[in-house]
Amino acid sequence: MHGNGNMLRHELKYYIHPHEYVGLRSRLRALLPLDRHSVSDEGYHIRSLYFDDARESALYDKLNGYFQRKKYRIRIYNVSDRIIRLERKSKWNEYVLKESAALTRGQVYRLLEGDIDWLADEGQRLLTDFYRDLKEGAMKPSVIVDYIREAYVDEPTNTRITFDKQLAAGLHSFDLFDPNLATWEAIQGPRMIMEVKFHRFLPGTIRSLAQVSAHQRSTISKYVLCKERQKVYGR
């Protein structure tokens, strides 16, 4: 199944306990390599700045379980400006499409300052759509989502199993590049998030390794978790 010329993927999400993680990690590590972004055995750091409109549609569409929804975010890795991407994540029921476009650090700061007209002149569809949604939906920065990702990849089938740890919401700032950004833990209790991502089918070996059928699937949104935490502790 395709969307806008790109292949849609499945994303299965689960809350797991740290003791489950230890066993899963051991099995996966024996057969699959870590993602290329990894800087250590623990994986790599992801920080994303999400945008939402005046009605907070990205938040409430998810909470209300709407069949079709989308979110925009700017994502960086390991608190570095080496790779900066604007991403649009669209969802149709259980299918997910992720589109991306490269940005520079200077462009990110222009966006944070409210300077958006340049987006219309870049000649990229995603940037043009982002510009339209910023203008028409009064969309603006909403919350920073911060976590460590440990990802294992099966290249032949383009399948990924990720463990997202130390999920935290950014507080009082939208500066993605601030190494001292104040954050607040967004998940209560000893839990982390496991995601299984695949395109046409989930290989039996991966299903067995990740023990997919043994875990209770959840409708998890890191954006919603962090946005709710932000609402409790204030911007």
Query: Low-confidence stretches at least 5 residues in length (pLDDT < 50)?
Result: none
Structural class: alpha+beta
Total helix count?
A: 6
Number of strands: 11
Largest sheet at a glance?
Answer: 8 strands, antiparallel, barrel
Mean pLDDT: 91
User: Order of strands in the sheet with the most strands?
Assistant: 3-7-6-5-4-8-9-11
Q: Can you tell me the overall shape?
A: globular
Euclidean distance between termini CA atoms: 39 Å
Highlighted features:
235 residues, alpha+beta, 8-stranded antiparallel beta barrel, two-stranded antiparallel ribbon, 6 helices, 11 strands, globular
Can you walk through the features of this model?
The chain has 235 residues and is an alpha+beta fold. It has six helices and eleven strands. It has helices spanning 18-31, 57-63, 105-112, 125-136, 204-210, 222-233, and strands at residues 2-3, 6-7, 9-16, 44-52, 68-77, 84-92, 95-102, 140-154, 159-170, 183-185, 192-198. It has an eight-stranded antiparallel barrel with strand order 3-7-6-5-4-8-9-11, surrounded by five helices. The chain has a two-stranded antiparallel ribbon with strand order 1-2. The longest helix has 14 residues, at 18-31. The protein is globular, with a radius of gyration of 18 Å.
